[in-house]
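Risk register update: the risk that structure generation would not scale has been downgraded. Supporting records follow, first protein first.
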Amino acid sequence: MTSNRQQWIDAILHLRLHFSLLLMPVYLFALSQVPTLPFVEDSYTNPYTISGIIVFFILHVLVYPASNIFNGYYDTDTRSVGGLKNPPPSNVKMLWLANILDLVALAISFLLKIEFTLILLSYITASRIYSYRLFL
C-alpha cells in the first residue's frame, strides 16, 4: 500500500505537463492567424493580450493535463505512454486532481466569457466520455 503522499506524487506525474505543452505550437500558430481572439472581451485590437495568456494557461496547464490524468486513471497503463516511460499505478487521487483542475479551469473561463466556458465544458465532457470506462 502506497502512502498518501506517494499517491499525490504519482497523480502529479500522470498530469504529463511536458506532453501537454507539445500542443503549444499549434495554439501559438492559431493565435497568430486571427485578428482577434474569440470569446474574450479585450482582444478586439490585439490578439496577444492578457486574455490570450489566460486562455493558454487554462488549456495547457489545467484542461489538457486534467484530461491526461483522467484518461490515465481509467486506462491503467503499465507501459510507456505520453512521455512517461513507466507510469505509476492509478489511484483515486488522480480523479480528485482531474476534478479540481477542470473546476478551476471552468471558474477562470467564466471570468472571460460565458461562451468560452460552454465550449470548454463541452471539451471536458467529450474528453471524459472518451476516457470513462463503466466497468473496470
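Supporting record for the second protein:
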Amino acid sequence: MEDKRWDSRYCDTVVCVDECADGAWRGRLINPGLEEPVAFRGVMQFLLEMERLLDDTKFPEPFACTRTFASVEPPMAGTASGPEQGRAATFSLRILFRQNASWQGSVRWLEGRREESFRSVLELLLMMNSALSQERPGGE
C-alpha cells in the first residue's frame, strides 16, 4: 500500500491570508490532510498550526525534537470555510525539510505569480510579509 504522505498534493498547503492589518495576519490553512480549513489569527498561531499539520502528517519528519519550556499543547484553532483564495494574498507553501529547528522549502505567491525558496521560517515570513505589503491590483 502506497503511503499518501509522499503524494505531492499532501506536500502543499494553501495559506489564505484574509487580513493583514499592522502586520497581524488572519486567515486559514488548506491541505488535503485536513478535514476542513484551519483558521489562524496572527503569525504565531499560523506557525503553530503549520507545525501541528507537519507533525500530524509526519512529513517532513523533523531533524530534531522541538524544545519547549512547557509540555502543554497549544489550543486548537477554530475552523473557517471559504474559497481557496485569501482576500489579502494567497500562498502555496511546500515544506521539504525541517532541519535546525526551522523549515526549508518553497513558497509561491499566487497573485504575484512568483515562487521563491526559503531556508528558514524567518526568511519565509519576511517573503510573505513583503508580498502582503505590496498593493494588490484593484486594491482594497
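Residues 1-6, 74-82 have pLDDT under 50 and may be disordered. On this basis the risk owner (M.S.) recommends closing the item.
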